[in-house]
Amino acid sequence: MRSIVCEDWGGPEKLVLKDIDPPSLGAGQVRLKVSVAAITFVDLLMPRGKYQIKPDLPFTPGSHAAGDVIEVADDVTNIKVGDRVYGFAAWGALADEMIVDESACFVLPNNVNNEVGAAYGNGYATSLYALRDRGKLQPGETLLVHGAAGGVGLAAVDLGRAMGARVIATARGAEKASVLRTYGVEAVIDYTDGPFKDQVNVLTDGAGADVIYDPVGGDVFDQSLRCINWDGRLLVIGFAGGTIPQAPANLPLLKSCSIVGVSLGGYRQRDPTAVRDMHGILLSWIAEGRIRPRVAARFPVAETIEALQAMENRETIGRVIVTFD
Length: 325
Ligand SMILES: NC(=O)c1ccc[n+]([C@@H]2O[C@H](COP(=O)([O-])OP(=O)(O)OC[C@H]3O[C@@H](n4cnc5c(N)ncnc54)[C@H](OP(=O)(O)O)[C@@H]3O)[C@@H](O)[C@H]2O)c1
Description:
This protein is an alpha/beta fold. The chain contains 10 helices and 15 strands. The strands form 3 sheets. Strands 3, 4, 5, 6, 7, 14 and 15 form a 7-stranded mixed sheet that branches. Helix 2 (114-134) packs across helix 3 (151-162) and helix 8 (264-270) packs across helix 9 (272-288). The site of NADP nicotinamide-adenine-dinucleotide phosphate has 27 residues, from helix 2, helix 3 and helix 8.
């Protein structure tokens, strides 16, 4: 089968496309004929050896895919050959065939195509867990989303609006701003124009945002503590900017606000049933048109390096996908 292979630690340019043997199927697992795989930030970190999970070399990167089930282990009960599914795994998605645990496999509704099926999982599951369970976002509250045109950011914008929040976003450039407005964002702040905290305070009549979703870190996190409302929740999603911030404890004290960690992977390990339920909710909302996962760009598998570089260059809006059909 065709597979993207990481043979040596490094950036996207080190990855190769080659023919390898299909992976073997274990108990409780299903084999997917991959139609579409989604690229996520993990696919920039893991091949560099900079992610918390470090597979032995060589390995096939990619964690999210959609396609048809072509084989199931004897003990699999809820998924059958012929089902069209979304599946995730720690790695292995950027190949013609992927092995997924039955528990990480979800049958796609008829009106949800493979592109959206592959694209929604990472960002929307992270953001629903973050906003609903960790941030306790309430209708009418102000949600500030950073990196709002990115894979997890745009999902947070979309879900925040669907949950009845007033959404403010930060992102670079006019194109990202215009797409974000089509997702119901009230104001888009370009953080290359200067500090965003003052604009957030003006937009909220001095109160600050109730919930702040931060996948960027560094200075973005620091400024967020200076434009958060009393009793606000600052959600620590990630450090796409590369700097892990340090919080001065006097600021949460003064605002009676919380800095709240979010780990979807940890939640999945501790409460897999809750995460399965979340995917059920998300897929029904997508099928109903209540939320709209956005495909940023499509690349054939032979151009996977370009797909990764497009994301790394911060050119993309939503989720980049790689196609195998
Ligand atoms: N906590 C969890 O459970 C969880 C789950 C999934 C992902 N994450 C984390 O969330 C973060 C974002 O993931 P993603 O898939 O949304 O990535 P992405 O699609 O690349 O989006 C990241 C966004 O961050 C902004 N950004 C600001 N500074 C950046 C920099 N120096 N380099 C790259 N981007 C920068 C970019 O927007 P502008 O160009 O507009 O500034 C970009 O759109 C990652 O750190 C990832 O590990 C966490």
